[in-house]
Amino acid sequence: MTSHRDKVLALFKECDALLQGHFKLTSGKHSEWYFEKIRLIEKPAVLEKIVDLLVDKIKGDLLEFDYVVSPAYGAIAIGFLAALKLGKNFAFSQRVEEKMAFRSGFSGLEKGRAIIVEDILTTGGSINEVLETLKQKGVEVPGIYVLVDRTAGSVLVEGKPVGSLLSLKVEAYEPDSCPLCKAGIPLTKPGASDKK
Ligand SMILES: [Zn+2]
Q1: Cα 193 to averaged position of ligand 1 atoms, centre (Å)
Q2: Residue 36 alpha carbon to ligand 1 centre in Å
């Protein structure tokens, strides 16, 4: 029997959204894990299986809401698919002159209840912005979900960890103190192979 976590990991690996190895990040630091989040939406059939697992989790929390809301652009496909499977409405937020906003066309959002669905939690920045924007509209937000919490619960939103399908602490090491370098694992630069 494979565990739920193994099943989730296998799906992320199946669409190459999660790479395991020894990577040089744009910051110059080294890491064992690398997320290529655009790959999540590149293979809709795999994404559907991932979203099914997220939807199971959301249903299990027995929240009341009318909308699934996601920030543009990467999470739109994820939130839309989740909304479809949950039988709810969908809306997305987008930056307008740096500020998070909703198109006025999403007329049913005001004064309702919405959950937020995002792809990957790294700093919580965009989730907090979406949350603030919804609150200003009088929308209640009973739940916040991400596919991957790469802070493993250390970033809190309103004092609580967000719901996640996969919780994974991604350590970034200075090259001098990188255990993967010490172990002699070849260093790769993600994305470099695409730019031939
Ligand atoms: Zn290294």
Answers
A1: 18
A2: 19
What is this structure's pTM? 0.89
Calpha distance 11→39 (Å, rounded): 11
Type of residue at 130: V
If you measure from the C-alpha of residue 87 to the centroid of ligand 1, how many angstroms do you get, rounded to a whole number? Answer: 45
Tokens of 130: 């979406």
Amino acid type, 171: E
Torsion region of 36: left, alpha or beta (phi above 0 gives left; psi -120 to 50 gives alpha): beta
Coil vs helix vs strand at 93? strand
39 Cβ contact list (under 8 Å, min separation 6):
15, 16, 17
Q: Give the model confidence (pLDDT) of 123-159 as tens digits.
A: 888 999 999 999 999 999 999 999 999 899 999 998 8
Q: How far apart are CA 28 and CA 43, in angstroms?
A: 29
Residue 70 structure tokens: 């996601």
Which segments of 14-135 are extended strands (E)? 18-24, 30-35, 67-71, 89-96, 99-102, 113-121
